[in-house]
Amino acid sequence: MSEIRNLINITDLTVEEIDGLIATADDIAANHSAYENICAHKKLATLFFEPSTRTRLSFEAAMLELGGSVLGFSSANSSSAAKGESVSDTIRTVGCYVDIIAMRHPKEGAPIVGAQRTTVPIINAGDGGHFHPTQTLTDLLTIKRKKGRLNNMTVGLCGDLKFGRTVHSLIEAMLRYEGIKFVLISPQELAVPEYIKEKMNAAGAEWKEVETLEEAMPELDILYMTRVQKERFFNEEDYIRLKDSYILDLEKLRTAKEDLTIMHPLPRVNEISVEVDDDPRACYFFQALCGKHIRMALILFLLGIRKKA
Amino acid sequence: MNIDGVNTGIVLDHIKAGKSMQIYELLGLDKINNCVAIIQNADSEKYGKKDIIKIDQIIDLDFDVLGYVDSNITVNIVKDGRLERKHHMELPQTLKNVVKCKNPRCITSVEQGIVHTFRLVDRENKVYRCAYCDAEHRVK
Question: I want to staple B79 with a disulfide (CB 3.0 to 4.6 A). Which of A86, A162, A178, B84 is the partner?
Answer without folding.
Answer: B84
